[in-house]
Design a protein that fits this description.
2 helices, 130 residues
């Protein structure tokens, strides 16, 4: 649910987000995504993050993120394709990221996904300004 130019997403130990799409209100200048890891597993085994990029770039961003490694939150440093991303969190942890909505108003479609290796196949959804 979106309220006050933000939303909360939960990730779990079954490699799933509880949200499949995010509609960002056009009236918001900035938007915040709060990520809550509802599972119990540690970050090294079942870490989750939220990365926002063009749908067309998701696979390449994930591959470069895997090469960057866990210490880099599975996101390549200074990757121009990445609109925004959170750090990796494990069971019981939370994090958030705020970004300008202008970055996803044109040039999409965009999606949010988890860049932990292997997770993006199941942990992804669409994000768009409405």
């Amino acid at each position: 649910m979106v309220a006050n130019c933000g939303t909360t997403i939960e990730g779990n130990d079954a490699m799933q987000y509880n949200v499949g799409s995010i509609a960002v209100p056009a009236s918001c200048g900035n938007f915040t995504i709060n990520l809550k890891h509802a599972g119990k597993m540690p970050v090294a085994a079942m870490g989750h993050n939220v990365v926002i990029a063009k749908t067309a770039d998701q696979q390449a961003v994930s591959a470069d993120g895997m090469a960057a490694g866990a210490a880099a939150n599975y996101v390549k440093a200074d990757d121009a394709r990445v609109i925004a991303h959170t750090k990796l969190v494990g069971g019981g942890e939370s994090t958030s990221v705020t970004f300008p909505t202008s970055k996803i108003k044109t040039g999409g479609p965009y999606e949010f996904f988890c860049s932990f290796p292997g997770h993006a196949a199941m942990m992804k959804g669409t994000i768009a300004v409405q």
